[in-house]
Amino acid sequence: MAFPTNEDVLIGLDRADDAGVYRVSDDLALIQTVDFFTPVVDDPYWFGQIAAANALSDVYAMGGTPKTAMNLVAFPVNEMDISVLRAVIQGGIDKLVEAETVLIGGHSIEDRELKYGLSVTGFVHPDRVLTKKRLRAGDRLVLTKPLGIGIVNTAVKANLASADLVETVTRIMAALNRKAAEVMDRFDVGACTDVTGFGLLGHLAEMVSGSGLGARIDSQRVPMIPEALEFAAMGLIPAGAYRNREFREGMLDFSESVERTRQDVLADPQTSGGLLISIGEGQVADLILALKDAGIADAADIGAVTAGPDETIRVD
Amino acid sequence: MKEIDARGLACPAPVLQTRAVLQDESPDRIRVVLDNPASQQNVQRFLESRGFRTLLETRGADYRVIGTLSDDEASTTSKPAAKSKMETEIKKIMVMCATDRIGFGDDDLGLKLMINFVRTLKEMGTELWRLVLVNNGVKLAIEGSEVLEDLQAYEKDGLKILVCGTCLDHFSLLEQKRVGETTNMLDIVTAMQVADKVVSI
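Structure tokens for the assembled complex are given below, as produced in the milestone run.
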């Protein structure tokens, strides 16, 4: 399929990244992204926050600052009380306020199932766009939120998660990647993406793919919601985790010492997950310190970009 | 062999269905039929976490897991994972109500207390396993009961509510029951035996 494009399209559909980037002038480019989904938590207000945090995240992952947003709403107006919709939108608004992003419009349709999300536009300098494709051999890999969100949400659906755990995972999903992005902006970052539906391994595979480089993950250092490992052992794993793994099977090389449950969490699809950042070895300690100072307690150095083997992710 | 047909169900329902059968019937051998490989792997993981050795089969569009409880877990080759902490900590609590109000003295107060009790029971979380209603307790499950909606919500969330048939019959309330399964003394006694804890009101 031929997509309409021109020379100002810096990132377009020909190379799927977290968002599209369009150059307006020599010192300004627009980042555009859209995302919406069905509820991931029971509470409509928190669902609104999570959907907004998730939509905003793509702008942060491209190194930009979100500026404007528009609501996308599908709502079963005959079956659901309108107060639910108000709560969802209020959640979105509160997240936008936190992100200093203005809401300038939107569109809603009637649908059988509630869906909510946003289209977000951000600014970035054309020379400072961060993509998935600028890995450098020897770079360290940093992750800013714990994994296991999909597995824990499956346990929530099964009514097996405690109220405390529901709150924990909700807060993780609703947390903006803004602070992480602001800290990252002060460093010489190689590549960046946000970890969402393909899981850590799937998104890392996208980065490694076509780079001529490989990656190594130290699974013991990857931040994980502890209960996710226990639920994985019970088989409370979303089908997406299996698909993620299968899709990239040829690129994955697991050491025998990595337990199956840990492998499951590494492939677990995330909703509004953290940023995955590659950064020079000399700066990684400072980056982690700065992230922790900014309140991102889970930030961790989880592995490295390797010169080879080509397009392989080794997990120890 | 116990057989479960979990085709047509999305995650996590097949695991929950298998879990319920294990809790209720404690079979030594079990065959679970599924319609996709992800559910098959999930059920396999679940059975292994409960000390079963597993075998996977694919027949046409069916994905099966056959589980055999290992007598000596250490001697098996598949090394089933230890029971997860999460699971072993979940107790089975059976609550038996032989009255529709709590305590003696003031009946209005007793009724208020019972309503409050039923609504607060949810704090037991997944450990609340059976709610058994006998004698005057069956009146909680009939049309017009102040806690009917609460009980219906519990049932929807998977709590099994057993309502004494003899008692309903005695009060001529068989037709008015709106929640729970009509049950007999044998079921009640069996549930008592399987429960980790029985709370009687």
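The interface with chain A takes residues 10-12, 15-16, 36-39, 41-46, 49, 81, 84-87, 125-126, 157-158 of chain B (CB under 8 Å). Residues 2-71 of chain B form a domain with the Translation Initiation Factor IF3 fold (CATH 3.30.110.40). Further analysis is deferred to the final report.
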